[in-house]
Amino acid sequence: MSRSFVRLVKMFLVLAVAGFVGLTAGARQNNFTVGTASAAAGEKATGYINVPAGVDAATNIPVVVVHGAKPGPVLAIVAGSHGTEYASIIAVERLIQHLDAKEISGTVILVPLVNVNSFEQKVPHLNPVDGKNMNRMFPGKPDGTQTERASWLITKEVIEPCNYLIDMHGGDLDESLQPYSYWPKTGDEKLDTVTHEMVLAFGLGHIIIDTGRTKDPDDSRYVDNTALTRGKPAITVEAGYAGTVQPEDVNALVRGSVNVMRYLKMLPGTFTPVENPVWFSKVVTGTSAHDGIFYPLVEKRTFVQQGMKLGYITDFFGKTIEDVRAPVTGVVLYICAVPSMKKGNTTVDVGVVATQAP
Ligand SMILES: [Zn+2]
Predict the structure, then answer these.
(1) What number of other Cβ atoms are within 10 A of residue 300's Cβ?
(2) Please, what are the domains in the chain?
(3) Does the pLDDT value for residue 8 go beyond 90?
(4) How far is the CA of 76 from the centre of ligand 1 (A)?
(5) Per residue in 177-232, pLDDT tens?
(6) What is the whole-number distance in angstroms between the Cα of residue 81 and the centre of ligand 1?
(7) Of 127, 228, 318, 348, which residue has the fewest beta carbons closer than 10 angstroms?
(8) For residue 170, what pLDDT is reported?
(9) How far does residue 40's CA lie from ligand 1's centre (Å)?
(10) How far apart are CA 25 and CA 216, in angstroms?
(11) Is 223 exposed, middle or buried (0-12, 13-18, 19+ CB in 10 A)?
């Protein structure tokens, strides 16, 4: 064998070993990219999911990738589908500031504000560009209106690449809401076990057992359900109300997210799952029979008996035209926070306490 051939063989071996080492360590060396945010392992990157113009205007959804130094699962945390549920948006902003990629095992995708136009124009519930609810049109369509195009890209760029998901909400501008989470009981035992542990780890003391979500991945409607119908554990949590950013609401959402990350072993440290939470078997909604002015008589979280007077509606001349009564016995999870009342609008949501904890 010639010397140069031996040298060539040696070089090949060195390269092959280097390649193998590179490959095995590669998962952590590769960048993790969502939209224009691309983070190397141990780094945090910011960017946008660019929703191109279609039948209506383009929009850019901010996104942050915290790509942990160590391997682990991918957790997506989404907020602001309703752009005036401020406490949830601010909670994700806090997580963006505080999560340290050097400490994290796995990757966190943070989407603090899906519905930028709702936030900027202070329009509750809907995307003012097309009048659609940004938590009802999933999985979206690449050629639909802005809400559908945005939903499509969130499905592709955020939900499909994640292993676990938390969708954050709260009382909107017109909603006085008691913090709670939803436990989605899908009937898939593996999924239900993990989401059950996730809601307990998250720690809110009121939990709605949600059995009503569609099982069709092509008509998943909600952010959490888009993950669930794709086999990924997902929960929805709600805190905050009526345009406020109360520290206790923001803290509950931040602490809950950190505890779920500890449960998933993405962060070091221990957590205590909430003990003996109040479980609700269903939520019954009361609606107004009239246009007029709403006067509440109880606060959120009040325990009420079916038929109890919770508020009243007057016409614009002060004459009472309707008593708002509890549609069922349970806990007021939400009561209208503003005087504006339209026929058919929600006056109150009452949670029916489950007779047995699941
Ligand atoms: Zn919401």
Answers:
(1) 21
(2) 31-263 (3.40.630.10), 281-353 (2.40.50.100)
(3) no
(4) 17
(5) 999 999 999 999 999 999 999 999 999 999 999 999 999 999 999 999 999 999 99
(6) 6
(7) 318
(8) 97
(9) 32
(10) 38
(11) buried
pTM to 2 decimals?
0.92
Structure-token match 């130094």, residue found: 69
CA of 78 to the centre of ligand 1 (A): 11
How much is the average pLDDT of 286-298? 98
- Supply 246's token pair: 């109360």
Say which amino acid occupies 185.
Answer: K
Instruction: Give the DSSP H or E segment for 262.
Output: helix 247-263
What separation in Å is there between the alpha carbon of 21 and the centre of ligand 1?
46
Q: Measured in angstroms, how far is the CA atom of residue 172 from the centroid of ligand 1?
A: 7
Distance 85 CA to ligand 1 centre (A): 6
CA 84 to ligand 1 centroid distance, Å: 8
From the CA of 241, how far away is ligand 1's center (Å)?
10
**Each residue of 148-176: pLDDT tens digit?**
999 999 999 999 999 999 999 999 999 99
Check: CB of residue 313 under 8 Å from CB of residue 288: yes
312 Cα: distance to centroid of ligand 1 (angstroms) = 25
> Is the pLDDT score of 25 beyond 90?
no
**Ligand 1 center to residue 24 CA distance, Å?**
42
| Sheet with 292-296, side-by-side order of all strands | 320-325, 309-314, 292-296, 340-341
